[in-house]
Amino acid sequence: MSNENYHHENLKAELIKKGLKLLDGEGYENFSLRKVAKACGVSHTAPYRHFDSKDDLIMAIAVEAQHKFNQCLVEAVNKYPNDNKSQLKEMGYSYVRFFVENPEYLRLFFLSDFANNIKKINHVTCIKDDQPFNTFYEAIERCQAEIQNREADSVDLNALALSCWGLVHGMAILIAKKDFPYDGDYLELVRKILWGGTFLNL
After folding, report:
1. Which of 92, 93, 148, 168 has the most crowded Cβ, counting Cβ within 10 A?
2. Rounded to 5 degrees, what angle do the CA atoms 86, 92, 98 make?
3. What are the residue ranges of CATH 1.10.357.10 in the chain?
4. Average pLDDT per run of 10 along the chain, which is 202 residues long?
5. Does domain 58-196 have CATH number 3.40.50.620?
6. 65-123 pLDDT, tens per residue?
7. In which residue ranges does the UniProt entry place its DNA-binding region annotation (predicted)?
8. Do 137 and 144 form a contact (C-beta atoms < 8 A)?
9. Taking phi first (over 0 means left), then psi (-120 to 50 degrees means alpha), and beta for anything else, what does residue 40 get?
10. Range(s) within the chain of domains with CATH label 1.10.10
11. CA distance 21 to 43
């Protein structure tokens, strides 16, 4: 079996995988289907069986990344089906862990020269139930409703969302970029902050 035939069996998945690495390393302007084809060991025309252009491939990369990220958050929610605060804490931990373990996704979503295009892709190609922000925001809404029902206090939904997101996003960036010096286990430190500190102590 030739190298190209071997790759053709799983060529689309391979193009997405290798494409992410190339996009992360070279940026949008230097990214091309020809380079991805070379990385996959196939002819320069092979990617066109699945993608019309480099933007088409980048869209597929973004959609797959969004799906993986959303699945991570959904799994966190499912661990605590009847505990809204624990859902948010576990989601926060999963958020940081996902981007620390996959820094290329962090750069793609938030730090790359294609990040603004990713935001547009979210609105066009991702269905509501598969968008990480919707999964997160729905958990915030459940937590807000619980607090207001129990304490009869008004809780600003957007303030709560920004507070939770800002904390975990900041930790993810600091750890992924190694800007916070620490000799211990970063993820254990994150769990300590989210579960043992004042996070969601409302």
Report:
1. 92
2. 130
3. 58-196
4. 53 93 90 94 92 91 90 95 92 96 90 72 56 89 82 78 93 94 94 84 60
5. no
6. 989 999 999 999 999 998 999 999 999 999 999 999 999 999 888 887 777 776 666 55
7. 32-51
8. no
9. alpha
10. 1-51
11. 19
Can you read off the two tokens belonging to residue 64? 């797959």
- How far apart, in whole angstroms, are the C-alpha atoms of residue 95 and residue 99? 7
Please give the pLDDT value at position 10. Answer: 87
Cα angle 16, 19, 25 (rounded to 5 degrees) comes to: 145
| Angle of helix 115-125 versus helix 54-79 axis, rounded to 10 | 70
What angle is formed at CA 104 by the lines to CA 100 and CA 106, rounded to 5 degrees?
60
Identify the CATH assignment for 1-51 out of 2.60.40, 1.10.730, 2.30.29, 1.10.10: 1.10.10
